[in-house]
């Protein structure tokens, strides 16, 4: 294993550059932190390029197994100082392990309506915390994936990946321009349910068991634009009391997803 303590090491410089979207896009790489999440990524079939681990990880069985798996997969393993891990993750107390993985997205035509499948489409989501939380919630309810429409925050930024708590490795992501999305939607045979503050339908009155659902959520500041709203079969609203104008995007998505998947999510019998 190669040991690196200098921040000027060219490999470390390249990994640090992944904090910037333009480098992530150029290299098609992203970072994930923590032993469990790196193992999850392996298990889910993601391709590792580089594994960094702290010197303190030497002799730790799980870390050494991960290192051996990385080498077997053709990746590079570096043992690094805490200073390097802090700089790479921009954290004072970094995790012991960081993995650099290849990005993966699906093309829009891989999204096909089937059974009672649920997909979520997000219009220009801007906040990495919202996107990560939505990916985690989509995972929790068993949604098939998330379509990012228009200029969205990067699903592979360290902030988004952190907020997913590992669901980034479980939930397929599609990126599409509004034009490509609307063209694809014309051939989509499922129901497209939009959420809108002017929606006239109570979100609890729709029978979501009938066929596939594409849930369309609007941008945090502006809500759904007219072209996306008019492409929906139904515009639903979540009733509110009190002074808030609207719900937070991730909260509204969670409320909707649990209603749409209500019939499919019985509590397990643990007796
Ligand atoms: N000012 C924005 C507007 O006028 O739509 C508020 C957007 S809200 C923060 C973000 C998104 O969450 C909305 O576009 C919608 O998709 C969803 N949302 C939030 N509260 C909702 C509610 N009560 N009913 C339906 N959708 C809601």
From TrEMBL:
Gene3D superfamilies (UniProt xref): 3.30.1330.30, 3.40.1280.10
Pfam family, one: SpoU_methylase
InterPro entries in alphabetical order: Alpha/beta_knot_MTases, MRM3-like_sub_bind, Ribosomal_eL30-like_sf, rRNA_Methyltransferase, SpoU_MeTrfase, SpoU_subst-bd, tRNA_m1G_MTases_N
A single MF term (Gene Ontology): RNA methyltransferase activity
Coiled coil regions in record: none
Keywords: Methyltransferase, Transferase
CDD domains: SpoU-like_rRNA-MTase
PANTHER family, per the entry: RRNA METHYLTRANSFERASE 3 (PTHR43191), RRNA METHYLTRANSFERASE 3, MITOCHONDRIAL (PTHR43191:SF2)
Family: Belongs to the class IV-like SAM-binding methyltransferase superfamily. RNA methyltransferase TrmH family.
Name of the protein described by the UniProt record: tRNA/rRNA methyltransferase SpoU
Organism: Nitratireductor pacificus pht-3B
């Amino acid at each position: 294993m190669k040991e690196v303590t200098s921040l000027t090491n060219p490999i470390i410089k390249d990994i640090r550059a992944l904090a910037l979207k333009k480098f992530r896009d150029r290299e098609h790489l992203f970072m994930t932190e923590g032993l469990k999440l790196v193992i999850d990524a392996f298990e889910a079939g993601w391709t590792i390029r580089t594994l960094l681990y702290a010197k303190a990880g030497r002799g730790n069985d799980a870390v050494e197994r991960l290192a051996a798996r990385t080498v077997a997969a053709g990746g590079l393993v570096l043992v690094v100082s805490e200073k390097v891990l802090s700089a790479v993750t921009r954290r004072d107390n970094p995790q012991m392990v960081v993995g650099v993985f290849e990005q993966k997205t699906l093309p829009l035509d891989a999204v096909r309506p089937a059974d009672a499948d649920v997909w979520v489409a997000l219009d220009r989501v801007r906040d990495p915390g919202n996107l990560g939380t939505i990916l985690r919630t989509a995972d929790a309810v068993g949604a098939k994936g998330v379509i990012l429409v228009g200029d969205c925050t990067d699903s592979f930024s360290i902030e988004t990946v952190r907020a997913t708590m590992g669901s980034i490795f479980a939930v397929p992501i599609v990126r599409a321009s509004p034009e490509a999305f609307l063209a694809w939607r014309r051939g989509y045979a499922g129901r497209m349910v939009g959420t809108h503050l002017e929606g006239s339908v109570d979100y609890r009155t729709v029978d979501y068991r009938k066929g596939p659902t594409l849930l369309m959520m609007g941008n945090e500041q502006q809500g759904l634009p007219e072209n996306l709203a008019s492409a929906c079969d139904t515009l639903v609203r979540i009733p509110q009391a009190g002074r808030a104008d609207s719900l937070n995007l991730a909260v509204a998505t969670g409320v909707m997803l649990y209603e749409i998947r209500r019939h499919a999510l019985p509590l397990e019998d643990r007796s």
